[in-house]
Amino acid sequence: MKVGLIGLGNLGGRIARNLLNKGYKLSVYDLDQELLQFFGGLGAIPYESPSALSRNNDYVITVLPNAEIVKSVVLGPDGLLSGFLEGSTLIDMTTSIPGVTKQIGVELSKNGIHMLDAPVSGGVKKAEDGTLAIMAGGDEDVFLGAYSLLNDIGSNVTHVGELGAGHTIKALNNMLCATTLAATAEVLAVGTKLGLNPDKMLEVINTSSGRSHSSEIKFPQQVLSRKFEVGFTIDLMCKDLTIANGIAEGAEVPAFISGAVFQLWQYAKSQGGGEMDHTAIAKFIEGMAGVEIKV
Ligand code: NAD
Predict the structure, then answer these.
(1) What ranges do the domains of the chain cover?
(2) pLDDT digits (tens, 9 = 90+) for 43-99
(3) Does ligand 1 have an atom closer than 6 angstroms to the CB of 63?
(4) pLDDT per residue over 237-262, tens digit each?
C-alpha cells in the first residue's frame, strides 16, 4: 500500500509521524516548504505538487484547514485528480462540509477514483499515538480496503454511512463538544465567583450528572492548569460550528442552543482568540465573569 499525506499541520503532522513510526514509506506535500523539508528529514518522501504525489500513491490522505482548500487541492490546477491512477482512493480527514465532499466524490468517481470522508476526533496527542476516533463515510468495500491504514491511524474506526456521513457526524460531535466546554466554563465561573474551589467543583461534577469529556479531561489538563496548549484552535472550532449549524439548517431542524454557542465562540474569535487553543474559550467567559477558574 503506497500512502501519501497532504497537510502537515498540527493534526496532519502528528498523523504523519505516527505512520512513519509504524514503518510506512510515506509521501508528503504541504504548501509550507519548511514543514515539507522537516518531514523529509524524518524519512518521508516530499513531493512538489499534489498531482505528483497522487501519481505515485494509491492512497492519499488530506488533512487540510477547510472544504474550499480540499476542493482546490483535489480538483484545482495540478491537483490530486490530475495525477491519480484509476482505482486510487482519496481519504479526506479534514473536518469539512458534507455537500462539498459529495461534489468532490462525484468528480473523482467519473475518473474511477474512490473517496472516503474520514474525519477524526481526539486531538494531537492521540494523532501521534495512532489512537484517534475515526468516523468514515463512503462505499463499504472501499472502507474495508482502507481499513488497515485507518486502523493504524485510529483505535476506534467506525463506518457511519455514505460519502459525507463522516463529515456530518464530525461537525455534530464538535457542536456538542463546543457546548459542553462553554457550559462547563460558565458553571465553574459562577461557582468560583461565589467562592467555591474549582478543583472541588470538578471533583463533584465528574462523579455527577453534569460530567462530560470537557469536565473530565479538558478542564483539569488545560484550564485549571492554565496551560491552554495549542492543539485545536478557536478558529477551527468556529469553522466546525458554522458547518454544524449549516447542517441543522439544511435538515430544517431548529438549533437554538448551537446558535447561542456559536455566538459565544465567534465573540472569542472577534476578541483576537482565533489562534488560541479551543480550551481558551474559558478565558473569554472568565473575562465576562470577572474571575479566573484556577486553584
Ligand atoms: P493546521 O492549520 O495546523 O494545518 C493545516 C496544514 O495544511 C498546514 O500545514 C498548511 O500549510 C497546510 N495547507 C494549507 N493549505 C494548503 C494547500 N493548499 N496545499 C497543501 N497544504 C496546505 O490545521 P490542523 O489543526 O492540523 O487541522 C487540520 C484539519 O483537521 C482541520 O480541518 C481541522 O478542523 C481538523 N482537526 C484538527 C484537530 C486538531 O486537534 N488540530 C482535531 C480534529 C480535526
Answers:
(1) 3-162, 168-289
(2) 999 999 999 999 999 999 999 999 999 999 999 999 999 999 999 999 999 999 999
(3) yes
(4) 999 999 999 999 999 999 999 999 99
Determine the residue of 69, 236, 241 to mutate for testing ligand 1's pocket, defined as the one with the most ligand atoms within 8 A of the Cβ atom: 236
Domain covering 3-162: architecture: 3-Layer(aba) Sandwich (3.40)
**Measuring CA to CA, how many Å separate 132 from each of 109, 206, 217, 220?**
28, 23, 15, 21
Which of 5, 8, 11 maximizes ligand 1 atoms within 8 Å of its Cβ, making it the mutation to test the pocket? 11
CA of 130 to the centre of ligand 1 (A): 17
Class for the domain spanning 168-289:
mainly alpha
What's the pTM value of the predicted model, to 2 decimals? 0.94
Q: Which of 71, 126, 170, 218 is catalytic?
A: 170
**CA neighbours within 13 Å on the CB side: how many for 91?**
28
295 confidence band (pLDDT: 50, 70, 90): confident
Taking alpha carbons only, the member of 7, 8, 39 closest to residue 25 is 39
Q: 55-72 burial, b if ≥16 CB within 10 A, otherwise e?
A: bebbbbbbbbbbbebbbe
Q: Is 170 a catalytic residue?
A: yes
Ligand 1 atom closest to residue 127's alpha carbon, by position in its atom list: 40
Which residue's CA is the closest to the ligand 1 atom numbered 21?
A: 30
